[in-house]
Amino acid sequence: MKSIIIATKNKGKAKEFEQLFKKYGFKVQTLLDVQNAPDIEETGSTFEENAVIKAEAIAKAADTYVVADDSGLVIDALDGRPGIYSARYAGTDKDDDANIDKVLDELEGVSKENRTGRFYCALALAGPGIETMTVYGTCEGYILFERRGDGGFGYDPIFYVPSEKKTMAEMTPERKNELSHRAAAMNKLEPLIADL
């Protein structure tokens, strides 16, 4: 059985990928399964660059196929911020509440129509004997004026999806996974996996 490493320690994220890869006969592992996984500094200036840096470094270290993602929130009125800094927007530690507060502060006085944004996910596939490939997916929405919902994580409580009339934090995990930027990127990744 071929194995593929998902460059994450997040079990929830790994589970999403597992369903996709299983049907192609891949055994899915995460960084938790990799002995001495290198600690990779994301020095890219785009989501794609960061995903490629991670995927190639781990593929080289483990000599197997690797999928890495980099994702975040892109807000038009903030010139694309928080962008690649989404996880640590308010400082160094990944503090979801502080990140949300910072975004809401920066959007103060911005009208509903101008609070457009999207969740963006870049996926990179690297491995022995293949050229690294990238795909991306987005989920379009609006940034609300206050939090709504208890589910999800990150910016989900302020990210409103008009077609659902809900924030990401108000959706079931299943529905969120169907609509998410990661799901959109994974749909584009599927034909590449089939080719392996």
Automatic annotation (TrEMBL):
This entry's Enzyme Commission designation comes to 3.6.1.66
Q: So which domain of life are we looking at? A: Bacteria
Q: Where does Mg(2+) bind?
A: 41, 70
Q: Which residues bind substrate?
A: 8-13, 71, 153-156, 176, 181-182
Entry's cofactor comment: Binds 1 Mg(2+) ion per subunit.
Subunit comment: Homodimer.
Protein's job: Pyrophosphatase that catalyzes the hydrolysis of nucleoside triphosphates to their monophosphate derivatives, with a high preference for the non-canonical purine nucleotides XTP (xanthosine triphosphate), dITP (deoxyinosine triphosphate) and ITP. Seems to function as a house-cleaning enzyme that removes non-canonical purine nucleotides from the nucleotide pool, thus preventing their incorporation into DNA/RNA and avoiding chromosomal lesions.
Spell out the protein name for this chain: dITP/XTP pyrophosphatase
Query: What organism does the UniProt record list as the source?
Result: Siminovitchia sediminis
